[in-house]
Write a structure and sequence with these properties.
Length: 111
Amino acid sequence: MKRSTARRGVFTAPKGDGPKVTVRTPNKPGSAQRVDKAKYEAMRAVLLKVLPRKAPGLTQTEMMAAVMRAAPRATFPDSTSMWWAKCVQLDLEAKGVLAREVGKPLRWHRA
């Protein structure tokens, strides 16, 4: 499988067969990408499990560490869980399911 890359603000999803789901990003309104639905749904469940319901939420580092512990290794081998976590986090943020706290460090929680 070809590794995903991010260049000049454009992200490329890993190639895969099967049903797809469209994801968005709050950082670039109007842009969309189609990704593997099964992996999206699996990572969505992981993110909703590890992110708290209320502020102050988790920092990027805390969120990724929690995802690495909770993500099923068979579905997300090696470091692919990091790409999928960020992809799904941005999509859920664009849809209003997750909220980004104002200030630094950045923190996320369920909306």
